[in-house]
Specification:
85 residues; SH3 type barrels; 40% strand; 8 strands
């Protein structure tokens, strides 16, 4: 069975825990700015086109609406920090 994170479920759509991501959806950062358009999903990353970012991690998704992927206000602030014992 194909990996659901990379398998195209017809017409450029990918199911995730937050909802279904579709090719062409706007990706909106926590500040409300559009940072790109969904081109594809490869593993745990959304590949974007036409914006300020080339990709974003699926773990940064806060929600999915009918026409947009909304990113959480996190990610860079904690990136690279080790776990606390």
């Amino acid at each position: 069975m194909p990996d659901p994170r990379t398998f195209d479920h017809g017409g450029g759509s990918w199911p995730t825990l937050q909802g279904t991501i579709r090719r062409g959806m706007r990706v909106i950062g926590p500040d409300g700015a559009v940072i790109g358009i969904v081109a594809s999903l490869e593993g745990d990353e959304l590949v974007l086109e036409g914006g300020s970012h080339d990709f974003v991690a699926v773990s940064q998704i806060d929600g999915i609406s009918d026409d947009a992927v909304l990113l959480a206000d996190q990610g860079d602030a904690t990136f690279g920090l080790g776990a606390q014992p």
